[in-house]
């Protein structure tokens, strides 16, 4: 397994879908994961440490885990099948380890909120990584500019 960090969120110029960019901790490997717009926003809110007036789903999940006396040990992106990634959330509850199936985007959003490490299994890295710098800084800047116009009312709250 390789530890990775969230390097940022970008917009795929071909599909206009958000991509979470994971970068090897201190290394060269990059793993792009296409996610939904709401998951991308949740990840960006965590990266930017945005304080919301009401908890979003990932904030709620963090609160439930902590109030049950559990701790997120780490998240692991453990498989890729038919261009779909799979992940596990590893919890410690009363000294026991529990693994929960998760979408990678939800696991990443939770990891950022709990300051938990993100790991990727070697077979996933070998199949899905890209060379460094798959997106340029201008693309990241454009995506962040688009998010500046985002309003909580747009979520139907």
Describe the structure.
- The protein is of the alpha+beta class and 157 residues long.
- The chain has one domain: Bifunctional nuclease domain (Roll), CATH 3.10.690.
- Helices cover 33% and strands 34% of the residues.
- The chain has helices spanning 37-47, 57-67, 104-114, 122-128, 137-148, and strands at 2-11, 18-24, 30-34, 70-81, 84-93, 96-102, 118-120.
- It has a 7-stranded mixed β-sheet with strand order 3-2-1-7-4-5-6.
- Strand 2 and strand 3 (30-34) form a beta hairpin.
- Helix 1 (37-47) packs parallel to helix 3 (104-114) and helix 2 packs across helix 3 (104-114).
- The longest helix is centred in the C-terminal third of the chain and has 12 residues, at 137-148.
- It starts with a strand and ends in a 9-residue tail after the last helix.
- 33% of the residues are buried.
- The mean pLDDT is 85.
């Amino acid at each position: 397994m390789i530890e990775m960090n969230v390097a940022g969120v970008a917009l795929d110029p071909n599909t206009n879908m958000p991509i979470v960019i994971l970068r090897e901790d201190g290394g060269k490997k990059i793993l792009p994961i296409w996610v939904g717009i709401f998951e991308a926003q949740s990840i960006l809110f965590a990266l930017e440490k945005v304080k919301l007036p009401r908890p979003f789903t990932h904030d709620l999940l963090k609160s439930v885990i902590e109030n049950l006396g559990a701790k997120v040990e780490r998240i692991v992106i453990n498989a890729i099948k038919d261009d779909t990634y799979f992940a596990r959330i590893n919890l410690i509850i009363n000294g026991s380890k529990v693994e929960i199936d998760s979408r990678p985007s939800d696991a990443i959003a939770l990891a950022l909120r709990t300051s938990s490490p993100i790991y990727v299994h070697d077979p996933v890295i070998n199949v899905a990584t890209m060379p460094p710098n798959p997106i340029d800084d201008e693309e990241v800047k454009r995506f962040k500019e688009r998010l500046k116009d985002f309003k909580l009312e747009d979520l139907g709250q």
